Amino acid sequence: MGFGPSRLCLASLLIFSCISCISQPTVDPKLEALVAQKLMLDIRYFCPTTTHSTPTEKCTTPVTVLPIALKNMISDTGVGGIILFANNLVDTEQMIRLNHDLQAAAAQGGHKPLFISIDQEGGRVVRIPQNISTAFSGNMAIGATYPLHGTHFAKISGEVIAKELAVLGFNLNFAPTVDVNVNPENPVINVRSFGENPQIVAELGLAQMQAMQSNGIISALKHFPGHGDTSTDSHSGLPLVEHDISKIEAVDLAPFQYAIDNGDPGMIMTAHIQYPALDSAIFKATDGSHTILPATMSRAILTDLLRVKMAFKGVIITDALDMAAIAHFYQPTEAVIQTFNAGSDIALMPIAIRTSSDIPKLKKLIFDVAYAIQNEQLSIEEVEQSVARINALKQIYIQSEPVDSDIAEATRYAKTVLAAPAHLHAEQALADSSIVAIKNQGVWPIPKSIQRIHITMPDNSKCMALTSALTQTLKTLGATKNISCSSLTSDSIEDILTLQRDAQMVIFSDITPQQSLVEMGGMDDISDWRLRPNKDQLDAKLLTLITSTQPSQTSLLISMRTPYKVKQYAPYVDGIIASFAYNTQTIETRDINGQTHVSYQGPIYRALANILLAKQQANGSLPVSID
Q1: Is the bond into 176 cis (omega within 30 degrees of 0)?
Q2: What confidence score (pLDDT) does residue 514 get?
Q3: What are the sequence ranges of the domains in the chain?
Q4: For 276-329, how does the pLDDT look when each residue is reduced to its tens digit (9 = 90+)?
């Protein structure tokens, strides 16, 4: 008996359906749940109604209120963590509500509480608005206080930062940086390091870590196995460290080993750096090139060294996987599988979620990694052990918060903690104690005979901050001076020289190296980062101004970042001071006419003014070597 046309079509449809069923793999949902717990996403920007119709479209709408689409994504997928950036953080109530809503979304899906993380190192890398919090001068400034104050400022800064993060709903801080900065050309660590002495870095790092964790915030030491001797920023390239084993152990690994031996680090963050002495294995990148495995992808480094030899029992998290050092060489799923195979517990920022159309990509990533477990490309035993470490850390540090918690009450309490008088006092004390006098040939205290001072600062905000600090300090002394200030970036050489020639004292400042991507936020800022003023041109302009001073003028250089470059200017100035910081706080006031006026201030500028005008001494010591 033959088949009629309708039966033939039905048979063909059934055959096609069976083939489709066979070709579509399935995975155990329990595996997907395990994978999701091992992912930490950023929600810096999100455009709910936008789809990427062209490759050039870019969503730049900050997430300050949790959109329904992201809430559902967290509930549906069970991702283990979220990292927030400065764009997500506006004011106290908004931060508390956003963090509360993130945890509520996880609870709604029946998942473990989220890691809600942040880069709040202090100094150059802070995300909480500085006008409502305590930022501190940063690690190299803390290193400058070590000879006189030991670990005091590491402890107090860790304590204050943790208390302020905790009341806002954060539970994980990617700090401290325990890289030993032995490379003057380091573009990304520099003042984020406590200095060049491994033992001092180790002691200060342990003290700050323990202070944070004692106050309810998980600390993530970074960047393992060490980012201190690089001349490439891993946001924009793949750095190479060619130390031999003995130097790696004595310098790079020493602070991590010290913390493991003497404390209980909750987390360690990996570095996207090649260390051929630790692992010289070659891999083939997506573009067909062959290069050495970065530490984030190396089992020899993360498992054999960190987990086994160094006996680290906490959680290993990658640095952001969207950084060029990884993203240039790996597709997202490939990167996640590779780093999990290497020994990472958490993949940080493996995929960008910027529109609703990106959420299916996340679900596919989770499915594909779960499928790799099912196919034994990843070890199920190791994945389960990894998630157990994650859950154990969450159980210690994250208290399950009732969904109906009182936001208003939490906000009122947080405002008593953020920038509390004792916190601001500690912030100012660090600034006061960290200033280093490198050279002083009668420059300060500024003599009463000097009445006309001209300052050249990197930009107008720093002009206003130092001018205001000097003016206020003079007022407390019952004195006045004529102070003018120019911006090195925006004012012409001719205009600056016109003011400079009329001064009895000239003050210059140098910020070397320039701002790095991590200070701005991350890879989303790379376009703005590339538009920074040309540093070589600014240096040449500064040198022209410095060498134009007259013999009758007193000259001072303030090194406001790393002090390595001062040796180039030293022959031409009478004095040099190092501050390791230049943070400014924006102050807005309204006059009787309702007009808003913006001014700038900061602890480091008050400390400089007090030293220059004899209200205190410069007692800091250089934490790095200069000729």
Answers
A1: yes
A2: 66
A3: 38-416, 435-522+530-612
A4: 999 999 988 887 888 999 999 999 999 999 999 999 999 999 999 988 778 888
For 474, counting Cβ atoms within 10 Å of its Cβ (0-12 exposed, 13-18 middle, 19+ buried), the class is: middle
Identical fold, 38-416 and 435-522+530-612: no
**Domain 38-416, classified CATH 3.50.50.60, yes or no:** no
pLDDT reading at 617 higher than 70: yes
Terminal-residue alpha carbon distance, the chain: 99
- Catalogue the active-site residues: 319
Number of neighbouring beta carbons within 10 Å of residue 27 = 18
Strand partners, 483: 453
Q: Under DSSP, is residue 186 helix (H, G, I), strand (E, B) or coil?
A: coil
Residue 211: HSE in the Cβ half-sphere, 13 Å Cα cutoff:
23
- Of 292, 291, 294, the closest CA to residue 273 belongs to 294
Q: Please give the C-alpha separations between residue 167 and each of 71, 95, 355, 402, 422, in angstroms, as whole numbers.
A: 22, 10, 30, 15, 16
pLDDT band (50, 70, 90) for residue 530: low
Which tokens in the block code for residue 341?
């195979």
The identity of residue 37, as a single letter, is Q
Rounded Cα distance between 312 and 345, Å, is 12
Q: What percent of the chain has pLDDT over 90?
A: 81
C-alpha torsion 550→554→560→565, nearest 10: 50
435-522+530-612 topology per CATH: Rossmann fold (3.40.50)
Token readout for 376 is 């034994």
Longest CA–CA span in the chain (Å) reads 118
The 3-state secondary structure of 89-129 reads CCCHHHHHHHHHHHHHHHHHCCCCCCEEEECCCECCECCCC
Helices (H), 399-558: 407-417, 421-434, 460-476, 493-501, 517-520, 526-530, 535-547
C-alpha to C-alpha distance for 501 and 496, rounded to whole angstroms: 9
Residues 529 and 520 sit within 8 Å (Cβ to Cβ): yes
- What single letter denotes the amino acid at residue 571? P
Q: Phi and psi of 576, rounded to 5°?
A: -140, 130
Q: Are 598 and 587 in contact (CB under 8 A)?
A: yes
Give per-residue pLDDT as tens, 23-74. 568 999 999 999 999 999 999 999 988 655 455 578 999 999 999 999 999 9
Residues 6+ apart with CB under 8 A from 578: 144, 435, 436, 438, 558, 559, 563, 566, 620, 622
pLDDT of residue 527: 58
Confidence (pLDDT) at 328: 83
pLDDT at 273 over 60: yes
